[in-house]
Write a structure and sequence with these properties.
- The chain is of the alpha+beta class and 105 residues long.
- The chain has a domain of 67 residues.
- Helix content is 27%, strand content 20%.
- A hairpin with a 3-residue loop joins strand 1 and strand 2.
């Protein structure tokens, strides 16, 4: 029965390389289509007086996109679960640090 499908259990782990670049972002916008979710990560810098004036007039602040990640709908529930678990672990580890639960900006 060589044509029978085999089930193989495995764990996927990131294969980091020494020169792997990290990208900092302090804002994430999320959008979706019927097929995927798009996470757009930006870096919002402190606003200058001119930026504040423009934001008051236009109600808009432009932030440079650092990375845009598109993921299929099927992995979103696992992504949410992983983020919740990591955030719980973070809160347990750093409960006494006094992190603010409010917005960064």
């Amino acid at each position: 029965m060589a044509d029978e499908p085999r089930q193989v259990n495995f764990t996927i782990v990131p294969a980091d390389t020494p020169d792997q670049e990290r990208t900092y972002a302090n804002f994430c916008a999320v959008s979706h289509t019927p097929f995927d979710f798009t996470l757009t990560f930006c870096e919002v810098q402190p606003l200058s007086e001119q930026d504040v004036q423009h934001a008051q007039q236009e109600h808009l602040v432009r932030a440079p996109v650092r990375v845009r990640v598109v993921v299929p709908v099927q992995i979103v529930p696992s992504l949410i679960t992983a983020l919740q678990e990591q955030f719980r672990s973070f809160n347990d580890a750093y409960a006494n640090v006094g992190w603010s639960k409010g917005p960064v900006h």
